[in-house]
Amino acid sequence: MGFENNVFINCPFDEEYVPLLRALVFTTIYLNLEPHFSQTISSSNIRINQIKQHIRNCKFGIHDLCRSKAMVVGELPRFNMPYELGLDIGACEYGGKLLKSKRILILETERYHYQKVLSDISGQDISAHND
Q1: Comparing C-alpha atoms, which of 39, 36, 33 is closest to residue 1?
Q2: 56: number of CA atoms within 13 Å, CB side?
Q3: Phi/psi of residue 112, nearest 5 degrees
């Protein structure tokens, strides 16, 4: 499958997220699309390069920002997923004709939480999945 059927799924890989990840993968495959994820293949690989390659090769992007908050008191929030969302939005905005055809779905646990941590995307349609 090529660009038109590829989906980059940018999501957490923790145990609590597994049921949502299974649903995302099932739905993607059911719709005859091919899911792509960032993977640790070798410590010699630079993960962001793999992510940029997925963004370049996937018409669709699903970005779940549900872990962009501290999971434990005193812990710092994780901002990898919002950063990768920014790369995907940038590809849509500044890429060539093919990349301008990209479509992005942004997910979050609770409605409007993203406005507290990533207010610059307030104009985007964010879908809440309530875990």
Answers
A1: 33
A2: 6
A3: 70, 0
Look at residues 83, 86, 125 and name the one whose alpha carbon lies nearest to residue 107: 125
Domain extent listing, the chain: 3-128
- Is the pLDDT score of 44 beyond 90? no
| Average model confidence (pLDDT) across the chain | 85
Cα separation of 62 and 84, whole Å? Answer: 11
Q: Are 113 and 91 in contact (CB under 8 A)?
A: no
Q: What is the pTM of this model?
A: 0.81
Amino acid at position 84, single letter: E
Which CATH number applies to 3-128?
3.40.50.10140
CA gap 27, 22 in Å, rounded: 8
Secondary structure (DSSP) of 74-94: TPPPP-HHHHHHHHHHHHHHH
SS3 128: strand
